[in-house]
Each structure stands twice: as structure tokens, then as C-alpha cells.
Amino acid sequence: xxxxxxxxxxxxxxxxxxxxxxxxxxxxxxxxxxxxxxxxxxxxxxxxxxxxxxxxxxxxxxxxxxxxxxxxxxxxxxxxxxxxxxxxxxxxxxxxxxxxxxxxxxxxxxxxxxxxxxxxxxxxxxxxxxxxxxxxxxxxxxxxxxxxxxxxxxxxxxxxxxxxxxxxxxxxxxxxxxxxxxxxxxxxxxxxxxxxxxxxxxxxxxxxxx
Length: 210
Known about the structure:
Layout: E1 15-17, E2 23-25, H1 31-73, E3 87-90, E4 96-108, H2 111-125, H3 132-141, H4 152-157, H5 166-178, E5 179-193, E6 200-202
Antiparallel strand pairs: 1-2, 3-4, 4-5, 5-6
Helix pairs in contact: 2-5
């Protein structure tokens, strides 16, 4: 495999590149700075290799799962082009389990603004001390995060409250009409059953959690 150092900029012999883009003679770079660079670059090269291996493994895992599903359903005269929903595969011994999950990314269109206006009307007209818990839930649901996004689960959760106010009901209808699936992202997770237990432990592929 070709080292990722091949992607680094060409540096004149006897010089070292600084963060500001200038070149510094090697003789002026301290030993500890050189050792720091060596440590970082060695680990980064290894991390990139592992990242590539993980990306390749992910592609292969989805491909192999789809191939297995296609083979399995063919027993019943059915042809499966791709896995559409969530799926759990368990080994014959029950020791290993693979879960394929499809997560939808939901978005709201302009009708959410109509819902918010109707909800604001409700809150304004309700007596000052009534339904305080609903006011808190509404404020929390429509709070935007650092990226300016609204938490879809909290907004959709407002529909669970059976409030008879006609404006509230219209607002809930507007919320339902405004939501749609922007895209779907598949996830695959791997598990191993604990010895002498019915519980499964995730096989961690996240370096931060290892």
C-alpha cells in the first residue's frame, strides 16, 4: 500500500514546512519539534490506513448482507434487489448477531412556521398559569441547536398531547404535513453474546469507545 506521505507537499531538501506556509532550515528546528512531527505523522499515516480499511469493510459488509438476503429469499421465489428496512441476522449458535438499520433524516418544510404560529396563539390565549408544562415543551421543541437545526423528535413529540383547542389540533396537522424524509442512511452493527448470558455486547469499531 502506498504511504499517505505521497500526498504531502514537496519540501526543499534541508527545510521543514511551517503552519504558515514558510520553510525553516532543519538546523533551526528543535529536536523535540522534530520528534513531535515524527510521532504525529506516524500515527496519522496509520490512522488513515485503518480508516480506509474500515471504509472498505463497511462496503463489503453491506454487499455481503444484501447477497445473503437475496439468496435467502430466493427460496420462496422472491427476488430482492436491496435491503429496504431494518434487519437482524443471528448465527446458528446464537453467539453472534449483526443488525442492519436504516435511519431516516427527517426535515420540515414551510408549513412548520404555520404550526408554530398557531401554537403561539394557543399559548398566548391560555391563562397565565395553565399548561405551563406544555409551554416548556413547546419552547424546548422549537429551540435550534448550534447549526440552526430543530430537533425533529421533540417537535413530532408535541403530537402526543391531546389538547382540544382547535388551533392546537390544526398546528399538529400542520406539523404532520410538513415533515418528510430527506434521505436514509444505513448502519451496520456487530454484536457478540456474553458468555453465560443472553445479553449481546457491541463489537466496537469506534476508536474513541475502545
